[in-house]
Automatic annotation (TrEMBL):
Homopentamer. GO terms for cellular component: bacterial-type flagellum filament cap; bacterial-type flagellum hook; extracellular region. GO terms for biological process: bacterial-type flagellum-dependent cell motility; cell adhesion. Belongs to the FliD family. It is found in: Secreted; Bacterial flagellum. The gene is fliD. This is Flagellar hook-associated protein 2. InterPro entries: Flagellin_hook_IN_motif, FliD, FliD_C, FliD_N. Required for morphogenesis and for the elongation of the flagellar filament by facilitating polymerization of the flagellin monomers at the tip of growing filament. Forms a capping structure, which prevents flagellin subunits (transported through the central channel of the flagellum) from leaking out without polymerization at the distal end. Residues 10-106 form the Flagellar hook-associated protein 2 N-terminal domain. Residues 223-449 form the Flagellar hook-associated protein 2 C-terminal domain. Keywords: Bacterial flagellum, Cell projection, Cilium, Coiled coil, Flagellum, Secreted.
Length: 468
């Protein structure tokens, strides 16, 4: 504020008068800006909270929207150190005795010993796996063993083939490994002239440890897995077995003299957990929405009843979101077989909009229709997909909520501009008023001085006249 020496000529408190005038001019617009800013800031925070709650719900739905979350059956191994298993489509309840006598192995081969520091002539190395060609490696003149190793790793990495160098007191050996398992998948290397020391016969044993005069397999040639299911002999080129038991995938982990029991049974506990997780995620979202839209009743100092709405009370977007979710809940699922409605699983909507699980009804429903639960919840026509999809228009990048956030930020930016304009205008108005009142005060001081001078002259004249 401008300063002045108050009322030197008039005795008036100019600062107080100017302050009152500025306040009277500024208050209406300031109140308007403050109210709009508070509303925009509160709404922005609420919209951001809403988007966060919706995103959290969709993440939970994504985690649940997998066949394993709602699989009607589950596979249990009596010894996971020997065998593990998962259930897929088409499985049926049953018990199986599986005994693994040998695991499928992959090829690991090595060259003969190579003297450290050896360089090689220009040529080619042709690698094959079983009867299939892997590729040809070009070797430049004076290439080192490490250079050849790097070339193999670069060119054949997509084939699951890797190379390394093993060194001991006798020398170096190039070792080549494959991730492919099964009989007749041994790696062999044919070498051109000048590179004979790098040739490998993958079906033959390497030379003795002491001399290693030829390249060949390390430990043993490749083999298929051999196992039995309830006494029936089976083989597999991999240790991950699919199709041997309808709808069940299992992995042979270790060979054993003892059979492992694989049990495929109703996944009651897993289904119950997943359904309750779904209900919990939905209820958490509804609670968050309720806190953003609730109306609070109270009593003022005079005893009158008042109500206060939350930031998104009566907000149309929130109503549309809730309606979309509720429509998905009561709608029919197209993949659920005998289960088409959530109520068939003992899940009902309460008066506050949240869901409640009737444990007894759920248990009964799972006993009769466990196989239909997966299709009801998951997949293209499943409940989870439909519910999450109904929110995409709001939560996606540049979706409705992002657009609203942008609009509110624009509003706050405009209000900041209005505040700056108002402050500038009031500063000028204050300076103008202060100048006017100071000028008035100066004029009054001058008039008072003139008045005093005139009165002094008149008094002197009167005194002179009286003396005569």
């Amino acid at each position: 504020m401008s300063t002045s020496v108050n009322g030197v000529g008039s005795g008036i408190d100019i600062d107080s008068i100017v302050t009152a005038l500025v306040t009277a001019q500024k208050t209406p617009k300031q109140d308007q800006i403050d109210t709009a800013k508070t509303t925009a800031t509160t709404t922005l925070s609420a919209v951001s909270s809403l988007k966060s709650a919706l995103s959290t719900f969709q993440t939970a739905m994504t985690d649940l929207n997998e066949a394993k979350s709602f699989a009607g059956l589950t596979a249990t191994s009596s010894n996971s150190d020997n065998l593990t298993a998962t259930v897929g489509t088409g499985a049926a309840a049953g018990t199986y005795s599986i005994k693994t006598t040998q695991l499928a192995t992959s090829s690991k081969v090595a060259t003969q010993y190579i003297t450290s520091g050896t360089t090689f002539s220009a040529g080619t190395l042709t690698l094959t796996q079983g009867s299939s060609a892997l590729g040809t490696i070009k070797v430049a003149a004076n290439a080192s063993l490490s250079t050849i190793r790097d070339s193999i790793n670069t060119q054949l990495k997509s084939s699951g083939v890797t190379a390394n160098i093993i060194t001991d007191s006798t020398g170096q050996r190039l070792v080549i490994s494959s991730s492919t398992t099964g009989a007749s998948t041994d790696i062999s290397v044919a070498a051109s002239s000048g590179l004979e020391s790098l040739a490998i016969d993958g079906s033959a044993e390497t030379g003795s440890v002491a001399t290693a005069t030829k390249g060949g397999y390390v430990t043993a040639p490749t083999q298929d897995a051999e196992y039995t299911i309830d006494g029936l002999s089976m083989t597999s080129s991999t240790n991950d077995v699919s199709g041997a038991i309808s709808g069940v995938d299992f992995t042979l982990v270790a060979a054993s003299d003892t059979a492992t029991t694989l049990t495929v049974d109703t996944n009651t506990d897993g289904l119950t957990t997943s359904i309750n997780s779904f209900v919990s995620a939905y209820n958490t979202l509804m609670s968050s929405i309720d806190s953003l839209t609730s109306v609070t009743s109270s009593t003022d100092d005079d005893g009158n009843a008042t109500t206060t709405g939350a930031a998104l009370t009566s907000d149309s977007s929130v109503r549309n979101i809730v309606n979309s979710l509720r429509n998905a809940l009561v709608g029919s699922s197209t993949n659920g077989g005998t289960i088409s409605l959530l109520s068939q699983l003992g899940v009902s909507t309460q008066t506050d909009g949240t869901l409640k699980v009737d444990d007894d009804k759920l248990e009964t429903a799972l006993e009769a229709n466990a196989s239909s639960v997966e299709g009801f919840f998951t997949g293209t026509g499943g409940l989870i997909t439909r519910m999450s999809a109904s929110l995409d228009i709001y939560t996606q990048d540049n979706g409705l909520l992002d657009q609203r956030v942008d609009s509110l930020n624009d509003t706050l930016s405009d209000l900041a501009t209005q505040q700056t304009t108002l402050d500038t205008r009031m500063t000028k108005y204050e300076a103008t008023m202060m100048a006017k009142y100071n000028a008035m005060d100066t004029l009054v001081a001058q008039l008072n001085a003139t008045s005093t001078s005139v009165m002094t002259t008149l008094n002197a004249l009167n005194k002179t006249s009286s003396d005569s």
